[in-house]
Design brief:
Elements lengths: L1 E6 L4 H12 L3 E7 L4 E3 L2 E3 L3 H8 L3 E4 L6 H10 L3 E4 L6 H13 L4 E3 L5 H16 L2 E8 L9 H11 L22 E3 L2 E7 L5 E9 L2 E9 L6 H10 L6 E3 L7
Parallel strand pairs: 1-2, 1-5, 5-6, 6-7, 7-13, 8-10
Antiparallel strand pairs: 3-4, 8-11, 9-10, 11-12
Helix pairs in contact: 3-4, 5-6
This protein binds NADP nicotinamide-adenine-dinucleotide phosphate (NAP).
Length: 254
């Protein structure tokens, strides 16, 4: 049995993860932590991560907290030789590099996925394939209005993966101007990213490719948080067999 501690257990994702871990025969929930004390599904929620990691002795810490605290949580887990499985978004390339170094130095594998939904992973892989042939592309990501960071980690990773297979270039008219600030979206190596935040959404993304006389749209919708659970459970089961830092659910698929 792989022992799992859930950090951010009182949050939207944390509660869903806790229930999924509890229902899985290969995983054993040994602890739950959040900013304030509470109870989820009969499990007591502690507030001191450092103490909980020592007392509960988990193999894996799942983190769905906030962009401003996730780095600290991950470094703490690695220092105690507990493997982090991280869903919290907002980590920069710089902080990921520090996590990679710490994971290697402490011989404690770590796993980060900006999106744990298999459909979203396929959307990114397909986008990378299409971009080779249709290099003009814009990304629209749509999320619920409680999301703290923008753009979404998925949009950023999609842009990064696309830019690995196409030359950076300016899109749209060379002389285009913005009469309203940022109306053309953010720019990632020439790829425009647009973030929508509205009540009613969970997590959605469209990748739109434009070519001569045609467009191709790849769209993924997470309509419920259960869409992320198979990916989270798979990462909990596989992380201890990895080395250093692994980023992206695609790395765990055959
Ligand atoms: P949420 O409902 O706000 O949950 C976050 C929880 O973490 C809250 O209960 C929060 O408490 C708690 N928290 C804050 N600081 C903490 C600390 N220092 N230690 C422990 N817990 C702390 O957010 P969510 O919707 O579950 O999303 C969480 C993260 O997961 C976000 O970054 C989101 O973008 C990401 N996400 C990733 C995926 C993926 O597939 N990778 C999917 C969905 C969401 P307070 O409310 O009191 O601050």
């Amino acid at each position: 049995m792989i022992k799992v501690l859930v950090n951010g257990a009182l949050g939207r994702m944390g509660r869903t993860v806790l229930a999924a871990v509890n229902a899985d025969e290969e995983l054993k929930l040994v602890g739950a932590v959040d900013k304030f004390p509470g109870e989820v599904d009969g499990v007591e929620v502690a507030t001191n991560l450092s103490v909980a990691l020592m007392e509960c002795q988990p193999d894996v810490m799942v983190d769905f907290t906030r962009p401003d605290v996730v780095f600290e949580n991950v470094m703490l887990a690695i220092s105690k030789k507990v493997s982090p499985v991280v869903g919290t978004t907002g980590l920069s390339d710089e902080t990921m590099e520090k996590i990679r170094e710490a994971a290697e130095k402490n011989d404690t594998p770590a796993f980060i996925a900006p999106n744990f939904a298999i459909g979203a992973v396929l959307m990114m892989l397909l986008s990378q394939k299409v971009a080779k042939y249709m290099p003009d592309v814009e990304i629209i990501e749509l999320h619920h209005d409680k999301k703290l960071d923008a753009p979404s980690g998925t949009a950023e990773l999609t842009a990064k993966m696309i830019s690995e297979v196409r030359e950076a270039h300016k899109q749209g008219h060379p002389d285009e101007t913005e009469r309203l600030a940022h109306v053309r979206g953010a720019d990632y190596e020439g790829i425009k990213i647009h973030s929508v935040r509205l009540p009613g959404y969970v997590a959605h993304q469209e990748v739109i490719f434009g070519g001569l006389g045609q467009t191709l749209t790849i769209r993924h919708d997470s309509t419920g948080r259960d869409s992320f659970m198979p990916g989270v459970l798979l990462a909990c089961k596989k992380v201890r067999g990895l080395k250093g830092l692994t980023v992206g659910l695609d790395k765990l698929l055959d």
